[in-house]
Amino acid sequence: MKAVWKREMQGYFFTAAGYVFLGVFLTVSSVLFYLEILNQRSGDLPTFIGEMSYLWMLLSPVLTMRLLAEEKQKKTDRLLLSSPVSLIRITAGKYLAAVTMLAMAALLTLLYALVVALYGRVYPAELAVNYLGFLLQGCAFAALDLFMSGCAATPATAAVLAFGANFLLWILDLLENAVQVGWISEVLRFCSLYARNESFLMGQLSFAGILFDVSFTVLFLALTVYRLNRDRTGQGTLRSLFRKKNAGRKERRYAAVTLVLLAGSLIALNIGAETLEKRYGWRGDYSFNSISTHSGVTKDTLEHLEHPVHMTALFRKGDEDAPLIELLNRYAAASNLVTWEQADPGLNPALLQRFTTDSAAPGENSLIVFCEETGKWRILGPGDYVSLGMDTETGEYSYTGWTYERSITNAIAWVTREKTPKIVIVQGHGELAGDALTHFDGLLSANRFEVIYADLGRADYTPDPEDALVFFSPQTDINEEELAKLQAFANAGGSFLFTCDYSDPVARMPRLAALMRSYGFQPLDGIILADRKDPDSYYNGNRMYLIPEMCSTDLTMDLIGSGAVRILLQGARGFAEPEETDRNLVESPLLRSAETAYRKVLTGDSTSLEKAEGDEDGPFTLALQARRVTGGGYVSRACAVGCSAMLTDGQVYSMTDCQQLIVRMAEFLLNLDASDLNIMAKEATRPALGIGSLRTGAVLITLLPAAVLLSALLVLRKRKTK
To answer: Residue 239: what are its φ and ψ, rounded to 5°?
Structure first.
């Protein structure tokens, strides 16, 4: 075998074949490196490696076309087949020579990774998994193309056959996405070399993927040995194996049966390995951001599940979100109570209709998380899988992390809750209503709260202490009968949410103010403004648009831990700092302005927003939470926010984390466990390359192909002169 390998390696380097392969491979990969990495100053090596993997389809025939077909063309095949070297060793020697060239080309591309390491960051474990899949795919193509070389009479024919076979594999991979028949699609995906490589490119070490590539290689090497055996015995067709007059009939039949059994065994082994890997989650996650690794919070949530949860991923075939699919497999592997399926939204209108409500509807690229026993569901979309960061200087937002796990685990925890919480929006005192509350109503409804509207003045309405009452900036005071209802409601453990804008006439509402003071909420007159010299404390040059600090409390702890702290208050009212109160009341600030902020009391004579002498300096409390132990032994909860727009403005919803804070306040008031569990977002982007990378990379991508060309000229010219 060593002699065969050495002979073929000399053939690569003493003829043009090896230099053509290396030269074309490095030239194309250099162009890809420039386009994918240098030109964009990106450190995304997996994308670059994924693009390079298509080179195996194009260039593997260059390495294999002459290995066996040239023996036939030069009439040296009989001498080779009659040599004392076994057919297995002959095949292995030739195959290893091709693999050596493949590995050499792949190792040279590690110089590209070195450029990324010098000017950015490389993740060694992920890179090793990427290259493992890259090399295994190349080895599989080499085995297939070697078999084609054994079937051809000339190297040119072998190259055409090999390229045709490689191209067919690619077409079958594309066809898998187009076929709607389930079992046919699954068979095509099972046989796809490209689909198997996707997990490696994601940094997922798939043992089933390794086994498939190895099995694919072993099968076609076995076919090559079988083909050489037929050539050695002079039998050209499989039918000749069964002719009774053929002297070697039994031996050839034995070889054919052995080959069939080998193929069947490999298929069964791979089906079993893939099934077990998916069922038990045996893939190793070596991605740079551990995208599919479960946190302790998720593991605990799944361990304590009491009801089955079924998830439906609405994707058209070929448009799947790969990280999401990987995570869904992990969830299903982690708990027997979690299952999932993929459904084409265009083919399942009844499914979409079932989960459509007035406030939310599933669509393409959505995930439906459903618990049949509780009857609850939550719909997640692409926007639920990313977290945004704001540049306070430019006012621009960018992706800062992936929140797949947080969103899915939160949804599972939510839909398995048996209690249906209720939010009551109080009416009858000039409060916000109708279209002004569309986004607030929709947000809570989408998070499976029941939202209703009630008039306290109605004699037949008595608030239920199991609910939370919301006062959206009332303009007139409550009466004595309503106050009595509210006091009874609070004494039985009922909870409140108050919004109080800077323009609200709090001074003319003594009864409502007294109710708020019972929880320690004392609204201050005037508006809180940011200092012009502190641009980080306000948004887009408007000093009325405050960017507050989120204070750490039991209500906000999960949000702070997950980085959901971006809040925007459009014209805010402040509250007096919490003071020492009676032992039955505990209050804490939720949001606080910057120390540079100041309070401006606007009057008819003075409407200027500029800071003047006598204006109180910050910081100011802009939102609070409180708990009061009532005379009846219950705990009544309350929150107050000095800006109703934070709860009602759709643009604020889309720009900030206000939605998470609103949902968390609702859960706090109703004494529910946080649905927004403390799961950190995963990194979304890799560090960009430094400025010098373009210069160094340009030199490298020029020198590598040039070095191969120079070597070819020196070696081939020297041989030509001999």
So the answer is: -65, -30
Q: How many CB atoms lie within 10 A of CB 514?
A: 13
Domain containing 371 — which CATH number?
3.40.30.10
Pairing of β 635-641 and β 495-499:
parallel
Q: Please list the alpha-helical segments (H only) found in 492-541.
A: 510-517
pLDDT given at position 529: 94
Of 424, 489, 522, which Cα lies nearest the Cα of 634? Answer: 489
Residues 6 or more apart in contact with residue 476 via CB below 8 angstroms? 429, 430, 509
Of the candidates 354, 379, 366, 385, the residue with the CA atom closest to the CA atom of residue 315: 366
Mode of pairing for the β-strands spanning 527-529 and 598-600: antiparallel
CA distance 187 to 173: 11
Token pair belonging to 699: 């030199």
Domain boundary among 421, 441, 456: 421
Give me the pLDDT at residue 201, please. Answer: 94
Same domain for 408 and 491: no
Name the packing angle between helices 110-119 and 87-108 (round to 10°): 30
pLDDT computed for residue 393 by the predictor: 52
Q: Are residues 305 and 283 in the same domain?
A: no
Q: Does residue 165 have a pLDDT over 60?
A: yes
Contact 371, 359 (CB under 8 A): no
Across the range 630-635, mean pLDDT stands at: 88
- Whether the upstream peptide bond of residue 61 has omega within 30° of 0, thus cis, is no
Closest by Cα among 446, 448, 438 to 472: 438
Is the residue at 523 inside a domain? Answer: yes
Enumerate helices (H) and strands (E) in the chain, giving the number of each.
26, 23
The string of pLDDT tens digits covering residues 363-379 is 889 999 999 998 888 89
Kindly report, residue by residue over 512-570, the tens digit of the pLDDT: 999 999 999 999 999 999 998 998 899 988 999 999 999 999 999 888 887 888 899 99
Confirm whether 682 is domain-assigned: no
Q: What is the pTM of this model?
A: 0.76
Q: Which residues of 383-420 are buried (b: 16+ CB within 10 A; e: fewer)?
A: ebbbbbebeeeeeeeeebbbbbbbbbbbbbbbbbbeee
Q: What are phi and psi of 404, to 5 degrees?
A: -55, -55
In the predicted model, is pLDDT for residue 214 greater than 90? yes
State the helix-helix crossing angle for 45-52 and 54-64, rounded to 10 degrees. Answer: 40
Phi-psi region of 128 (alpha: psi -120 to 50; beta: other; left: phi over 0): alpha
CA distance 531 to 529: 7
- For the chain, the domain total comes to 3
**Residues paired with residue 598 on neighbouring β-strands, in sequence order:** 529, 617
